[in-house]
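User: structure tokens for this one?
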Amino acid sequence: MQIRFPSLAPALAVAGILLAGCGAGDATPVQRQALPPVLAERHADWRHYGGDEGGARFVSHAQITPDNVATLQPAWTYHTGDLAPGTFPDAFNSPALQVTPILARNTLYLCSPRNRVIALDPVTGEERWHYDADPALVGLYSVTCRGVAYHESPDAPSGQACAARILAGTLDGRLLALDADSGQPCRDFGDSGEIDLTADLGDVRPAEYALTSAPTVVGDRVVVGAHVADLRRGGVPSGVVRAFDVRSGKQVWGWEALPPEQRVAGSYVPGTPNAWAPFSADSERGLVFIPTGNPAGDYYGGERNGRDTFGSSVVALDALTGERRWSYQTVHHDIWDYDVPSQPVLIDYPGPEGPVPALVQATKMGFLFVLNRETGEPLLPIEERPAPRGGPAPEALSPTQPWPVLPEPLHPTELTEDDMFGFLWFDRQACIKQFRSLNYAGLYTPISTEPTLVYPGFMGGSNWGSVSWDPQRKLLLANTSRVPAVIELIPRAVVEAPGFSERVELQLDTPYAVKRGPMLSPLGAPCTRPPWGVLTAIDMTTGRKAWEVPLGGTRDLAPFPLWLNLGVPNSGGSLVTASGLTFIAAATDSYLRAFATDTGEELWKARLPAGGHATPMSYTGEDGAQYVVIAAGGNRMLGSRMGDAIVAFRLP
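Assistant:
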């Protein structure tokens, strides 16, 4: 979805004084607790995409503190080279540097939008090696690689090639294994170092099947899902999740998000729900946790015939066998593009009788589902509430939808005429008029052949950046966007009639095309009052918000002096440290910020060379200094400045 603010400057000039006061409300500091030694060791390195295998995005490194963070300064910058002329031959491509590096063997490993796998010195940023996967890029609308995975064989002879290996996916559906020391392909893995994941999926057309999230390593298994293109055809490739032996590349198991009676022995069923977001794992319990998408059909659910049984769910699979242990559906019969977009985060829930192994799933609706990690049962109350009916296939909708009572929603659950906004009077009146004309009955309003208001919009709420967990303060940190969308189903007969010229997306094999976009005012701003993006802390001992602040400002969207801290749409994630800091960029204004985790007070910010739509990570180098690293590559879909930089910060 493209969100731009093309002509904010005149409106901001009039409204600047009124809006400049947006900021944090009162907040109660949360008592700091000591980090247990075992927990400190678990979070001392960053060997997984989300910091640890449970995606907490927390580090025990505490050299950078709330008292000295204001002196943080750039240490080094590395450029991936992804914006070189001719790199992206197709104008449809939208490269996005969304990677979070991992640290192992005193080396940073990462990937770039065109699937260049790179190894860097973590202290100097100097390149140690790179490997070009050379994927086919034509026709893709999501050109990104969010991370790689690491595996080490402890019993391998010293100096043996590929005793430690990097696992990476590509945009044309391959899984690579590279020697961690040299970057050369591991010849014992698959076909000379790679596996063609599309080989047994039947009819796979260009740009339909891509790996954008990091693989997940659990023991000697590497588990992968895939991004399967939306709004193409009913016969797009299966969304099967597969596990491979990390050494040989031999497939160990495959799991399709289908009821057992709908599976086909010896092959995979086209159009089944995929799992494009990052996974998490619990090696101790032998589980891997899968956030699922939707079956083909997207905004029209009339012909799914049970294929969405495990859609928009979080699913726990046995890491050894692929057997489903449990699943929990966050949206029933989803037709709003509310697929589960983010890595499940594993926490020890602070229950009244002691810690409980738990999973927190953030969703596009702004809901947080807190589940028992072993059983899938809710640890905090979730109600089935009546949902609106209607649309072209009402029989395919669920009469109820799950609503977590706690934690508090991260996103407003309803929109009223009073929420309409405009920088000028006529601007707001236009939004009010548009609001009155739309089909809207609250959250889960069925999408119909009338323009339908969908709030949260299809980017969320939460998205792939997920949430962070501070185990000391028992705080969950979440960044969300608040931009409504307007979606309309248009009968194919209308679209195919002579003279039809509107821009739509065809849902082949369904009776409808789709027209969608953000709900914007004539001046190009969201029709809802700011903030349009926030950072929120949830106190998990109560399920209530500890604090909430606007995230990001209008710099890069308007000229100086009209840079206001309104809170803007964002994409990326956060990092929390034991010393009490939350680092996040994500917003469109090309800053990396540090907030006090206790209170939400902004303590520091630094200008990045491009939009920082990624998740930061941190480590202590061999020089004894703590580093904070973030990818700054921008995102055309969000209208932020483009670049190809990996930037590291440290204290003087």
